[in-house]
Amino acid sequence: MSDQAKKKIKFIDGGICAPAGFTASGENCGIRKNKSKNDIALIFSDVPGSCAAVYTTNQVKGAPLTVTKANIADGKAQAIICNSGNANTCNADGEYIARTMCELTGKALGISPKDVVVASTGVIGQPLHIEPIAAGIPELVKKLSKDGSAEAAAGIMTTDTYRKEVAVEFELGGKKCRIGGIAKGSGMIHPNMATMLVFITSDVAVTAEMLKKALSEDVKNTFNMLSIDGDTSTNDMAVVLANGCAGNALIDCDGPDFKTFMKALNTVTVWLCRNIAADGEGATKLLECIVTGARSKKQAQTVAKSVVCSSLLKAAMFGADANWGRVLCAIGYSGADVNVGTIAVAFKSAAGTVKVCENGAGIPFSEEEAKAVLSEKEIEILVDLGSGKVRSTAWGCDLTYDYVRINGDYRT
Amino acid sequence: MSDQAKKKIKFIDGGICAPAGFTASGENCGIRKNKSKNDIALIFSDVPGSCAAVYTTNQVKGAPLTVTKANIADGKAQAIICNSGNANTCNADGEYIARTMCELTGKALGISPKDVVVASTGVIGQPLHIEPIAAGIPELVKKLSKDGSAEAAAGIMTTDTYRKEVAVEFELGGKKCRIGGIAKGSGMIHPNMATMLVFITSDVAVTAEMLKKALSEDVKNTFNMLSIDGDTSTNDMAVVLANGCAGNALIDCDGPDFKTFMKALNTVTVWLCRNIAADGEGATKLLECIVTGARSKKQAQTVAKSVVCSSLLKAAMFGADANWGRVLCAIGYSGADVNVGTIAVAFKSAAGTVKVCENGAGIPFSEEEAKAVLSEKEIEILVDLGSGKVRSTAWGCDLTYDYVRINGDYRT
Fold first, then answer.
1. pLDDT 10s digits, B67-80
2. Backbone angles phi, psi at B187, to 5 degrees
3. 84-103 in chain B: CB under 8 A from chain A
4. How far apart are CA B162 and CA B167, in angstroms?
5. pLDDT at residue number A410
6. Would you state the torsion angle of the CA atoms of residues B252, B257, B260, B264, taken in this order, to the nearest 10 degrees?
7. What is the ipTM, given to two decimal places?
8. CB of B376 less than 8 A from some CB of A
């Protein structure tokens, strides 16, 4: 992104309610026994908008995905309802429950149930009872407000330790436009040609077709390059809802406006990726593997993702151990065809940069310096394949005692 | 395997020295600073034998693999030298060091260096000095004995907590035959069309061609179905050396003798797989995923391996949590084309069997009973795909605090 383009996109407050015409709310409706944790969220646009989504490639799919797919087949939506605490997946009555969630939401908002996106996240294979949701929806509608982003972001959290919400502002043809987003992490995260739960709002006027194109292109370089634990969820979904309230000239084809929109969207999605990775289950460190010198995008992406997925490397990063052999090992088994003899590796953080490997072999480095670099909260693993000019970034986190603790008794 | 065939194959003592004509030894030569841990092993056959091997598919390959591949290109070998504590991988002088190890071993034994198999295991990317090895080899040769299997098995261990050695006895045409094996685990284990470090000896008379066929067929169902942490090592290698000292009629084609040999080999390799998995880094439990009702071997294997590789399921098994949704999730993202609606899942151990999922949806079960089943040391995860008659087994272990501890500071 050029400096000029970056300057034009600025972070603002308000999350998913920052775009004009959007309100949101969240609450505890009783799915979770712990009343201090929200378990349901509602996002509403004053007017119907263009809607696009990408879904998990896991063949075991949450029932809400099937219902959402059908509902937005016309490229249109006006509201998003999402519960946490239960994935509504592998339940015999799952689709009935998901459809009922849309009907109850549509009724309370006075819109068609077909304009409602539905999502669920939490434990797989436990019946989701409709009663608390039915009781909670009217309350959620009453609470809808321009200040509701934080409550909604809290409503979709599972093992996340903090809310992920972000918004940016930029201009299209002199009109102020905004994109906001919320996301939930933080385990079973290994999006594969799809993504985790992400809801993005925008007041940009854009056709459903171009919105779909923007999202599909973007996730290849963002959510699909993120992994917490290698487990591709059954309920992954990223939805963008754009209502046109900014009053810009409708984006209906490629061109400067579409490119600006994509840059702004990418600013939001990269922010969400970095924060999902940093707040991965049990994580103490954000890992960012930046591969350069690749022959192709595919080669760069395959290598970058393999490195952030290695359990051994993730554990070494937790221990601030510059065990770069594990980086080489992960490159070697990535499936990408590489020239081992030209690979260089370095670790970088706020504490400095340490080169550890050149031409595929180790070089002397200060263990003390390396320890300092790897003791920071954000670590860059720099891999130069020395074979071309293409680059790619993947995000992940360290593997810690707390990941084991959290997942040793997730249900109980 | 039929009961009759099973009866004919019996476990015996002696490990890799159980087959006639084999001796072995192990010692600490100074690669490891801790003198109480062996770091080098030698296996010797009185006469040259047929030799076959399979290697890692990791593109970053240990130097010893290149040298071994060249040495046994003629299908013949007489000795195996292997050090632990250093992988001799990603070192500029790696091949020179590996070749020198063969030369020193050949000289001390009075055989051609071309008849020596060389292997290394340990940290990647740290120079391997030849001095301690050069000093240790004559000592190793002196120590060679029929009781040397345990010392040799100890010499190839890294983070293993116990030695893996096994031997079986069976008959071919009235002649008593034996196969012995040793292996090292226990991290960076995710063999992929290859395997980890395994050395198998036999006194069977078999051509190099048929030995290669037996090993290649066998690893598909054994070592390739094993995963500790998803990381395919750079130094994986499985070698079989068969010297013909049993005096059986030479196996030079498929037939009853070859089938008996394959069954005996499989008994050894399955034993090694189960023990490598049970002693995975930090492991407290052996996981065995048995997939039945598959349409094809590939479908069965893909599903079984995906299940034992899931970090989330591995952590749940550590916590004795019957979170079967994670089994369904791992099946769904395995890449195998499955019919979710016909899948059944049960957990089984010495404490009993608990069915948790039928027709792709949860069924009521006793959490107390499930906890008891999952608190045992060996857990079977039974997956019936309900689509055919093919079955497959994969082996793995739970993900524990100790895996993180061990790998947080492996080098330091």
1. 999 999 999 999 99
2. -130, 170
3. 87, 89-92
4. 16
5. 63
6. -50
7. 0.80
8. no
> Under DSSP, is residue A91 helix (H, G, I), strand (E, B) or coil?
coil
- The pLDDT value given to residue A126: 87
Residue pairs between chains A and B whose CB atoms are closer than 8 Å: 219
Model confidence at A5: pLDDT above 60? no
Alpha-carbon distance of B203 to B88, in angstroms, equals: 31
Q: What is the mean pLDDT of chain A?
A: 91
* Cβ contact A291:A338 at 8 Å: no
- Domains defined along chain A, listed by start: 3-278 (3.60.70.12), 286-408 (3.10.20.340)
- Facing residues of A206 across strands? A251
Positions of B annotated as catalytic residues are 195
CA distance A347 to chain B (A): 16
Is A125 part of the contact surface with chain B (CB cutoff 8 Å)?
yes
Instruction: Pick the residue from chain B with its C-alpha nearest to A367.
Output: B412
Give the nearest partner residue to A331 out of B60, B61, B311, using CB atoms.
B60
Q: Say yes or no: A129 contacts chain B, CB-CB below 8 A.
A: no
Q: Does the distance separating the beta carbons of B410 and A316 come in below 8 Å?
A: yes
Cα(A105)–Cα(A99) distance, integer angstroms: 10
Q: Mean pLDDT, chain B, as a whole number? A: 91
B58–A310 CB contact, under 8 Å: no
Q: Is B332 exposed, middle or buried (0-12, 13-18, 19+ CB in 10 A)?
A: buried
Note whether A235 and A283 are within 8 A (CB): no
Q: Classify residue B372 as exposed, middle or buried by CB count within 10 Å of its CB (0-12, 13-18, 19+).
A: middle
| CA-to-CA dists, residue B372 to A160, B323, B375, angstroms | 30, 14, 5
Chain A environment of B401 (Cβ under 8 Å): 401, 404-405
Pairing of strands A286-294, A378-384: parallel
- Tell me the pLDDT tens digit for each residue of A122-145: 888 889 999 999 999 999 999 999
pTM of the predicted model, to two decimals?
0.81
Smallest Cα–Cα separation from A154: which of A252, A230, A84, A228? A84
Q: How far is B134 from chain A (nearest CA, A)?
A: 24
pLDDT tens profile A17-76: 999 999 999 999 999 999 999 999 999 999 999 999 988 878 888 999 999 999 999 999
Q: Which residues of chain B neighbour A330 with C-beta distances below 8 Å?
A: 231
Residue matched to tokens 């088994």: A333
Residue A187 has what pLDDT? 72
- Check A333 against B58: CB less than 8 A apart: yes
Core vs surface per residue B173-207: b (16+ CB within 10 A) or e? eeeebbbbbbbbbbbbbbbbebbbbbbbbbbbbbb
pLDDT given at position B412: 52
> Three-state SS across B324-375?
CHHHHHHHHCCCCCCCHHHCEEEEEECCEEEEEEECCEECCCCHHHHHHHHC
For residues B390 and B293, what is the distance between their CA atoms, to the nearest angstrom? Answer: 6
Average pLDDT over residues A311-318: 93
Note the Cα B247 to chain centre separation in Å.
Answer: 28
- Four-residue CA torsion sign, B371, B373, B376, B382: negative
Largest CA distance in chain A: 68
Query: Is residue B193 scored above 60 in pLDDT?
Result: no
CB within 8 Å of A125: residues ≥ 6 apart? A87, A89, A90, A91, B324, B325, B328, B357, B361, B362
Mean pLDDT of A216-232: 82
- Chain A: residue whose CA lies nearest to B90: A361
User: What is the C-alpha separation between B33 and A114, in angstroms, rounded?
Assistant: 69
pLDDT of res. B280: 86
Does A56 participate in catalysis according to the annotation?
A: no
Cβ-contact B61, A331 below 8 angstroms: no
